[in-house]
């Protein structure tokens, strides 16, 4: 049972008692207080659903206050989505990557590729739309600063969104903001058990943690933050941009002809 | 600290003491013995890297015993890969989904979309190639049967592979074989906190667990199995086919023109 209680165990537990978050709430302090009361320590990682980040940062839009332009109206006709929502999707997108029927896969201004530019209408009041944070890395850094100050040491932070995937059914959480650690661990040049040099083993640690947080968050969309212990993180400023595949290295973002 | 020790904590720990696996080894019994000695209980999930499954099932090929045909030789010329490897890739592929330079994204006969049809040359002896199990669900079922018999109750099993992703850098583990639980939890028709009906919330639980296992496996490719506790699984026969997006619902597999 050496692994069960020891250093090798990875533990994730939900932070409890985070109130319903509203615009202007000091989310970093709310999280830092709950984390401190619930045993989070230096060296841990806190994984935060972007919904509370977006709400605290005022990234909530009333659809009936949106004035759709001609492009949004055309897109609404083509997709069956409300024109106001299409206006928001276009504003949040650098470009539309794929479209079929009512499904829009967009590249956001951050470089993330996801449905509807990450705009969410579930878990918000009818008639409202929730946008992604303007700069999720900056949001993560603010949370990290509050946690690290209160807990007296480095706590990593991941801000997550829930994405569909090419080729695979079902949604998983991914990292859209990172602070305090290297989100991708580059193991190239290391050696495997047989002594072969590893050539392609970038480990997407922040996405692994985001996905793991979904085991809890999926059960209850009221769980906005998960603490993780037992992760060997590499201290660094951190940025989720490291998790974005550069378009020139991406075989699916552009208009590559299929093989 | 209610969550830390309680039912809500998700715990993952590596099974230790699994010997180097060879063709013909009774992997289900090896795993069941280690699991029983290391505290795995009914209700837990065991996450197993396919490498040990493939090795035990004899899915190891000596490249110098492969006779490349004309298509493999052409592909070798175009990609710079050894013709023998190209022959294996073509044999393991239903089709090539994308190709650029030396990168081949293939759809395997199982329906998984991954680089080189899942054929791995790291962590195996030079000159050998490791193929995916022929039927990873069946492999998972055999492991599940051995675990459940020894532990006296249902233990879920996930067999994993390590995949790259469209749009995102870094590798994550995904489920290629599942037994004993529903790998995708369909929450459509449920309601969120605000009472809105959820429309798109299929949770890819088996992939979440696979990704979480990578936090350990990534550190040490000698860690073939991770136990997980605290997962609310839904009992079912289970199959990783549920995680494969049907090609007709996939915007990236086929030759859809970009938007």
Written description of the protein model:
2 copies of one chain form a homodimer. By secondary structure, chain A is α+β, with helices and mostly antiparallel strands. Chain A has 2 domains: 11-57 and 133-244, CofE-like (60s Ribosomal Protein L30, Chain: A), CATH 3.30.1330; 60-131, CofE-like domain (CofE-like fold), CATH 3.90.1660.10. Chain A has 7 helices and 12 strands. A 5-stranded mixed sheet of chain A has the order 1-12-2-8-9. In chain A, strands 4-5-6 form a 3-stranded antiparallel sheet. A two-stranded antiparallel sheet of chain A has the order 3-7. In chain A, helix 2 (27-37) packs across helix 6 and helix 4 (70-79) crosses helix 5. Chain A starts with a helix and ends in a 30-residue tail after the last strand. Mean pLDDT of chain A is 90; it is low at 1-5. At the A-B interface, helix 1, strand 1, strand 4, strand 5 and strand 9 of A face helix 1, strand 1, strand 4, strand 5 and strand 9 of B.
């Amino acid at each position: 049972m050496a692994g069960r209680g020891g250093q090798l165990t990875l533990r994730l537990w939900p932070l409890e008692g985070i109130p319903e978050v509203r615009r202007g709430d000091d989310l970093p302090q709310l999280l830092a207080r709950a984390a401190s009361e619930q045993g989070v320590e230096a060296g841990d990682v806190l994984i935060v659903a972007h919904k509370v980040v977006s709400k605290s940062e005022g990234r909530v839009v009333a659809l009936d206050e949106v004035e759709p332009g001609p492009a949004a109206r055309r897109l609404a006709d083509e997709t069956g989505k409300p024109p106001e929502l299409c206006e928001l999707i276009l504003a949040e997108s650098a470009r539309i990557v794929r479209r079929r029927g009512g499904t829009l896969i967009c590249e956001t201004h951050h470089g993330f590729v996801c449905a509807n530019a990450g705009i969410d209408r579930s878990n918000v009041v009818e008639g409202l739309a929730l946008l992604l944070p303007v700069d999720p890395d900056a949001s993560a850094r603010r949370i990290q600063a509050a946690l690290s100050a209160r807990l007296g040491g480095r706590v990593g932070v991941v801000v997550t969104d829930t994405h569909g995937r090419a080729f695979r059914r079902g949604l998983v959480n991914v990292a859209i903001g990172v602070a305090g650690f290297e989100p991708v661990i580059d193991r190239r040049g290391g050696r495997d058990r047989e002594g072969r040099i590893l050539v392609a083993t970038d480990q997407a640690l922040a996405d692994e943690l985001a996905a793991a947080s979904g085991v809890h968050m999926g059960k209850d969309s009221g769980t906005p933050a998960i603490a993780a212990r037992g992760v060997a993180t590499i201290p660094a400023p951190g940025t989720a941009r490291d998790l974005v595949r550069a378009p020139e290295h991406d075989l699916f973002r552009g208009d590559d002809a299929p093989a």
